[in-house]
Specification:
This protein has 140 residues and is of the alpha/beta class. The chain contains five helices and four strands; from the N terminus they run E-H-E-H-E-H-E-H-H. It has a four-stranded parallel beta sheet, sandwiched between helices.
Length: 140
């Protein structure tokens, strides 16, 4: 999904939603707000194989593999079964790249914070902290 050049060793970002359109749109927004150009790799994993609403373990695993650059993969989810699907994949132990982490963060704001931080070359722990901090963003 990410359009710019991607450096080896960056944390990859996977956005998991029940809707392919939502996952793709949040990825597009995050890339745009991160400055477009040279961003960390980001992939959307939304919807089911037949184009419906839902979460596909195969799509999540493929997205994670596509953004893995050896520095870990940060996964953000929208809700419900998306969280359960990622947790199940993590429990399997061999379905996702080593260093894949499910982040407890708001989907949109967390995705932007994670991508900006990963694009700056931060490690997975810093990416997770930035995404989690998005819970405190005030809108008043």
């Amino acid at each position: 999904m990410s359009e710019g050049k991607q450096a080896a060793g960056q944390v990859g970002i996977v956005l998991v939603s029940h809707s392919a359109a939502v996952a793709s749109s949040v990825a597009e927004l995050a890339v745009g707000l991160a400055g477009g150009g040279d961003t960390a790799p980001v992939a959307a994993a939304g919807g089911t194989a037949d184009g419906g609403l839902g979460t596909s373990a195969e799509r999540v695993a493929a997205a994670a593999a596509s953004v893995d650059r050896g520095a870990g993969v940060a996964v953000l989810t929208d809700l419900g079964s998306a969280v359960l699907t990622v947790k199940a994949l993590l429990a399997e132990g061999d379905e996702l790249p080593a260093g894949t982490r499910l982040l407890d963060a708001p989907f949109v704001e967390g995705a932007v914070a994670a991508l900006v931080t990963a694009s700056a070359g931060a490690d997975l722990t810093a990416v997770e902290a930035a995404a989690r901090e998005a819970y405190s963003y005030r809108k008043e």
